[in-house]
Amino acid sequence: MEPKAVSKDTDLRCLIYTSLSHMANDGNFLLYSLLIVYYNTDMGLSKALLGIGAVGSNLLSGLMSGPIGILAQKTNRIGHLIALGISIEGISALMFSLPFFYHYLTYWFIFLSAGVLGIGQAFYHPLGASMINETYGSDRAPRYLGINGSFGSIGRSIFPIIVGLFVLIFGYGHGIQYFGIIALALSLIIFTGLRPLSTGIAPEDRKNNSEVSHASTSLGKYRFFIWYLTAVVFVRSAFYVGSTTYLADYINSIVNSDFLTSLILTVSFIPPIIGQPYFGNMMTRKGGRYVILLTGYVSVISFAILLLVRNDILLTAVLGLYAFVAFTGFPVLLGYVGQRVPRHILPFSNSIVWGVGNTIGSSAGAGIMVALLQFTTLKNSFWILLILGVASMIAFQFEPVRNRKMEEIRY
């Protein structure tokens, strides 16, 4: 099946505005991780209790992904939904500033804000990947997913230092407020850019409304593949995001500086800007399974080294290597799904793999960290979490033959 005929202008518009969306969305990825440091430093709040907010945020995001994927298939309004997600994230940043002004009901403010952030984070990845696959087709999509993903890495790289600078200049409360205003402004730009696009699932390819409402029944022969991959991604994400939630706190324990922590995170998250298009291109040459295994094994090895170094420069370099291979899920995982399933079930399939596997897995990882911190140190918790990373790679290494030999979908 060939992709719908679209103009070069439409191709370019899709890439530009989905990339801007990815940058804005992933710019919020480390927001709560930084806020844990700020809430602890300025207000003396419990790190373990703050971790509950991360658990709830990721859990809610994962639970919302499936319904949002079905809504995208039913309404064909992917661009509108992407812009809505970014605006919700901006609102959450404004809400996160409230505890610095109103100290009563502090945890309620934080947990509610984390929930709103989780809802906003549920939109972009499955919908952005579906839009790109629909526009470019499964053969070209991994390359463009990689380019698009690099802008997500730019967001992860520059937004922590923006938040750090705003906090340094304006203070905790006002600095986070201004960050939220930037996110809201970006959502308006994204809405304007994506509104003219008629993207998503072509009406002639979609099931009728009753079938789409029960999208799980339409997975057919792809059901086993989708749920097996989802299970592997679940364990892998528990390792990745469980550790990332407290990554800023771990770095701060070594360098003893809030600003230097933001700077190290910014520098370390520059390599994925190159890594996402690099691995996206590798997807077309080597295939998804090869790239998933490569990035997975290198990430667990580099994270183990990260826990052994104390020098600031070595810490930044090793963290950069870890980020280079670990934060490639968008082009690698969703590119792999796009190569394996037909486009009429792609938004829902992406939502299952990303929402249940990646996002709820992330929530599980954060929950594991909260539990571990009750009886051991942060560093020891990281070592225990590393076991999950190794387990996920072993599970994918022994992926059943029926998955590996599944016919690749081309459209």
Q: Structural class from helices and strands?
A: mainly alpha
Distance between the termini: 4 Å
**H and E string:** HHHHHHHHHHHHHHHHHH
Average residue pLDDT = 81
What amount of the residues lies in strands?
under 5%
Give your account of this protein's structure.
- This protein has 411 residues and is mostly helical.
- The protein has 18 helices and no strands.
Provide a concise account of the structure shown.
The chain has 411 residues and is mainly alpha-helical. 80% of the residues lie in helices and 0% in strands.
Short descriptors:
single chain, mainly alpha, disordered N terminus, 411 residues, 18 helices
What does the secondary structure layout of this molecule look like, with pairings?
Elements: H1 8-27, H2 31-43, H3 47-75, H4 78-96, H5 106-121, H6 124-170, H7 172-194, H8 209-213, H9 223-245, H10 247-255, H11 258-268, H12 271-286, H13 288-306, H14 312-326, H15 329-340, H16 346-372, H17 378-397, H18 401-404
